[in-house]
Amino acid sequence: MSDGGGSVSDGGGSNGGGTFSNNDAGSVSNSGGVTGALAADGVSFAYPAPRVGSCGVHGTRHDGTLKSVSLHLAPGSSTALMGSSGSGKSTLVRILLALAKPSAGTVALGAREVKPGPARSLRWYRQAVQYIPQNPAGSLDPRMTVSQLLREPLRQLRVAGNHRALVGEALERVEVPAGLLERRPGELSGGQNQRVAIARALAVQPAYLLADEPVSGLDLPLRDTVLSLLGNLVRQEGLGLLLVTHDLGTAARVCGTTAVMAHGRIVEHGPTYRVLDSPGSPEAAALVQASAALHYPPGLPAGAA
User: Fold this and answer.
1) 19-45+63-291, superfamily in CATH?
2) How confident is the model at residue 136 (pLDDT cuts 50, 70, 90)?
């Protein structure tokens, strides 16, 4: 989903209804003064798939991957996006990143509609909306040093300010020592690469952050650091956060609201505590039950430990 480095640059309401809204009010002053909600409205998307006929496979049919999904993210809000594999989470994120065009519906940031297009026309959006991948190994250019990886999107997106200072601040936030600036991804651990990917996204000072399991490769102390950082960015700096996660604990700690996807739709949404404590859909209940099974031995009910 990224163009090489854990960030995206220009270099290269009711169950089953598919609707989820946070408070649309608010504004953010970073990312060049971008203001307003990041909103997907009535978004549908289908991948072409082979059609089997009497004479074998021929032609195509469109299997619906997203079906009239609406998702509104407000500045200073945090939303967990959960669901089983194949539910449509990754496709929705790609559309929100303007990396795929919906077959129906729109994506907008504030009053400005967003769709895939030439790099120059999306430069403002790439700075405003950044992405953190689950696995940075496939997105960090192995030929570039940490310093180069963080400076590249700043240069390509023409971010104002002292780039050296922005790089240093971003690395400090995720506890990457300055001594690693001239290292390359192959010389770093998996956890260090993940922190570099997070720092690369933060360096451009985005208004919105779309994060796909951003702490899955980190040990517990660093996981705690990064989750605290994300929470502070939302609460103190007005960042809007969409966090794709399978970890209910992460959702409960960082996100005020949770949306559950299944079969290309948002089947449940609401305050995280309610979705996790009293799920109102079979899909959300299954996620909660699966999490409980991971944390308690067979035959020991949740709460009995």
Assistant:
1) P-loop containing nucleotide triphosphate hydrolases (3.40.50.300)
2) confident
